[in-house]
Design brief:
Largest sheet: 2 strands, antiparallel
InterPro entries: RNA_pol_sigma_r3/r4-like
Strand order of the largest sheet: 1-2
Structural class: mainly alpha
Number of domains: 2
Organism: Nonomuraea monospora
Helix content: 55-70%
Oligomer: single chain
Shape: flat
Number of helices: 5
Strand content: 5-15%
Protein name: Homeodomain-like domain-containing protein
Distance between the termini: 66 Å
Radius of gyration: 27 Å
Pfam families: HTH_23
Length: 155
């Protein structure tokens, strides 16, 4: 059975879904996309999820590869910040300690947070954080001894 809506509504729906996907690829939030398209962020999320579910596996792999490339480029930029020499500046002047410029840890710590965020996203994208099912079997009985406690009074 085909779509029973008029052809112009079907085409508008396809266009809207394509636009949602395009804007998400640029990194826009659901809320920002909704504002741009004149729909709620919930509607954007629904369109996004529905469209993702209909994408063939090969296209998902292509998208995943694009995302990995994008994360790689971001990681390069974050690492550049990590490797730079950052000095503390206050009121337009370099802060010194014993005549030497004082290192500013702020940009370094922000870059570390960014690297960790990129790596977290990569792990999710690649499914590296999938829980591992573990089963523990034991035949051993463990006995705990409580000293100084009247166990009968706890009942």
């Amino acid at each position: 059975m085909g779509d029973r809506r008029p052809p112009d509504q079907v085409e508008d729906s396809r266009h809207r879904r394509a636009e949602v996907m395009r804007l998400r690829r640029t990194g826009m939030t659901y809320e920002a996309i909704g504002k741009q398209l004149g729909i709620t962020k919930q509607a954007v999320h629904r369109l996004y999820k529905t469209t993702l579910a209909e994408i063939p596996v090969e296209a998902v792999e292509t998208y995943r590869a694009e995302q990995i490339e994008r994360l790689d480029a971001l990681l390069v930029k974050a690492n550049e910040v990590l490797e730079r020499h950052h000095i503390t500046v206050s009121n337009g002047r370099v802060v010194t300690l014993d005549g030497e410029p004082l290192q500013d840890a702020g940009p370094l710590l922000d870059a570390i947070k960014t690297v960790l965020s990129i790596e977290e996203r990569r792990a999710k994208l690649l499914g590296l954080d999938t829980p591992v099912k573990q089963q523990l079997q034991t035949e051993q009985t463990i006995t705990y001894a409580f000293e100084g406690v009247d166990l009968a009074s706890l009942r």
